[in-house]
Write a structure and sequence with these properties.
By secondary structure, the protein is α/β, with parallel strands linked by helices. The chain contains seven helices and nine strands. The protein has helices at residues 17-27, 57-65, 84-91, 102-111, 125-134, 140-155, 169-181; strands at residues 6-10, 32-33, 37-38, 53-54, 69-75, 78-83, 96-99, 116-121, 162-165.
C-alpha cells in the first residue's frame, strides 16, 4: 500500500487555517491532521495532543538535536514543529494535512518532494488584522508582530504549488479539497 500524500497548508496567523482545515476534515473522512508540537502556552479550549503537543523549550530543543522533526520553525518567540514519527504513522493510513509556516514548508519540500504545498491568503490585510483582533486573546504587541510577519509570509506564496484566498471558509475548503483530489 502506498503512503498518503502530505498536504502542507500555510498562511498568516489569523487567516483562518484552523477553520478551513476543520471544514475539510468533516467533508473528507480519509484525511488526518498532523498535530504539531509547540512551546507556546495553550489558548483557552486547546487540548494537549489534540490541537498541539504543548512541550517545554528544553524538550523541543532536545527533539531538534535528535532529528525528531519533519520540520520546525521559531516565530512569535516560540518553537513549532511536526514530529516526524507521528506524520509518518498517519501517512500509512492516508493523506495527512500539515498546518505549518513557510520555513517549515520549505523543509518539508526538501525531504518530501511530492508534498502538495497550499498557501491560504486573507482577502485583505485589513481583514487579517480584524480577525486577529477578533480572537480577543492577542495583545497589541503580538498583533503588530503577527501583521509584520504576515507581510513576509505572503511574499513566500509564490513558491507554493497553489494559492487560495479565504474570503469565505466553506468555499476556501472546497477549493483546497478540489486541488488535493487531482
Amino acid at each position: 500500500m502506498s503512503k498518503g500524500k502530505l498536504i502542507v497548508i500555510s498562511g498568516a496567523s489569523g487567516v483562518g487555517k484552523g477553520t478551513v482545515l476543520g471544514i475539510m476534515m468533516k467533508k473528507r473522512k480519509d484525511l488526518s491532521f498532523s498535530v504539531s508540537a509547540t512551546t507556546r502556552e495553550p489558548r483557552p479550549g486547546e487540548i494537549d495532543g489534540v490541537h498541539y503537543y504543548f512541550i517545554s523549550r528544553e524538550k523541543f530543543e532536545e527533539m531538534i538535536a535528535q532529528g525528531a522533526f519533519l520540520e520546525y520553525d521559531a516565530h512569535a518567540d516560540n518553537y513549532y514543529g511536526t514530529p516526524q514519527a507521528q506524520a509518518e504513522e498517519k501517512r500509512e493510513r492516508g493523506p495527512v494535512l500539515l498546518d505549518i509556516e513557510p520555513k517549515g514548508a520549505k523543509q518539508v519540500r526538501a525531504s518530501v518532494p511530492d508534498a502538495e504545498l497550499i498557501f491560504i491568503m486573507p482577502p485583505s490585510m485589513e481583514e487579517l488584522e480584524r480577525r486577529l483582533r477578533g480572537r480577543g486573546d492577542t495583545s497589541e504587541e503580538q498583533i503588530k508582530m503577527r501583521m509584520e510577519r504576515a507581510v513576509w509570509e505572503m511574499e513566500q506564496r509564490f513558491w507554493y504549488d497553489h494559492v487560495v484566498v479565504n474570503d469565505e471558509p466553506e468555499r476556501c475548503a472546497d477549493e483546497i479539497l478540489n486541488i488535493i483530489a487531482e
